[in-house]
Here is the input.
Amino acid sequence: MHTTALTFHLMTRRDPSLLRADEVRKERKKATKHDAAHRLASVLHVDGKDGVEAEHENSQAFHDAWRLKSQDMLARAAFRRKKLVQRLQARMLFTSLCGTCQCCA
Here is the structure.
């Protein structure tokens, strides 16, 4: 199935974990680029390279890596949210204490 850039963008906007799956695929592709065993497996597999990649995507190792990437993304988002809330609370506290000057208004 071939997706256009627009449909890919819309899919990842709805589900950011799809973007993490693509990162895991890219890492796998980079790791197996010069791997002779992977090349031989793709030659011997009925569906070729796509079949080997499809088997890898159905493996537990792929799903573990995908889950770790997604958890990392969620942890980073939670950290950014927490820091933003802290900055906003600090600013609100400062403006409530310093309401007389023009810089805070």
